[in-house]
Structure formats: C-alpha cells, structure tokens
Design goal:
Keywords: Oxidoreductase
Pfam family, one: Flavin_Reduct
Enzyme class: oxidoreductase
EC number: 1.-.-.-
Helix content: 10-25%
Number of helices: 4
Shape: globular
Oligomer: single chain
Order of helices and strands: HEEEEEHEHHEEEEEE
Strand order of the largest sheet: 3-2-6-9-10-5-4
Strand content: 35-45%
Protein name: Flavin reductase family protein
CATH superfamily of one domain: Electron Transport, Fmn-binding Protein, Chain A
Amino acid sequence: MTVIAGPHAPVDPDAFRALLRRQATTVTVVTAAGQPPVGFTATSFTSVSLRPPLVSFCLDRSSSSWPTVAGAEHVAVHLLGADQRDIAQTFATSGIDRFTAHTGWRYGPYDVPLLDEPIAWLLCRVTQRVPAGDHAIVLAEPLAGSHGDGAPLLYHMGGYAALHSEPERG
C-alpha cells in the first residue's frame, strides 16, 4: 500500500487523482441548451435522494461548458452503454463542436439536446449549484427519463471499460 500523505497534511492533488483512478465509475454525458448547445462527459454522476428525487454531477468551473450550465434551468444526463466509447470520447474532447462531431441527437423538452440510444437518460430541472473547490456540484430534480437494456460504459484507471459478467443480485 502506498501512503499518499501524512495524517495532518492535505493529500497531494496528483496522488489524489492516482487514488481515485482505482474507482470504477459509470460514464455519462450531460447536455444543456445554449447557443450552441453544450455537452460534456462526466464520471461524477450519482443519485442523491429518493424523497424528493435528486441527482448530482460535478463540473470544473473553468470548463468551456460551465458558463452555459451555470445558467441552465434544465439539463439531460445520459448513461452511456458499453458500446458508446466514441460518444464518451467526443464529449470529453476540448476545442471541438461536440454536437457537429456527434450527429446522433435531437432537441428534447426545453431545447435540451437528447442523445440517441443511451442505456438510460434523465431530463432534469437544476435546483442548486454548490461551489466545491475548483468544481461546482450541480443538483438536479429528474422530470422525465427512460431506460433500456445493456451494460454500462465504465471509466477505470484512466480508460474506458465494460462489465464482462452480469452483476450478482443480492
């Protein structure tokens, strides 16, 4: 085991990143209406509450998507399937028009872009933005959604991965 900090010192950011690379996370693309619309790949998506239903994702406030998300009333969160690595990569690439590079989408309610064929999606109303270091935690209330079948795309150790077996249900 590698120790990354003493008991009273903050963790070095590079060591922190190395530690968190060991956590496998689902890959989502978050989209918001704008001129042009914005979208980005996120691995920080999670459910927060059932009563009321709330979800969250985090976004770097220096991101090119932040100004639009900072003022957006609605966003869509798309859970990508194991066969959608190309979509994850497109929406993770800086300096491109992501909606021209990826043509499989349409405008949904509130003009929020909806990607074609994710394994699940949620259309959400943004309820709160909480500053957290260099990021913001965006809390959102799901208004609509849909899901299909398929294994999720995962992010682990700096790359994309997929499940090779069905999870045990307990």
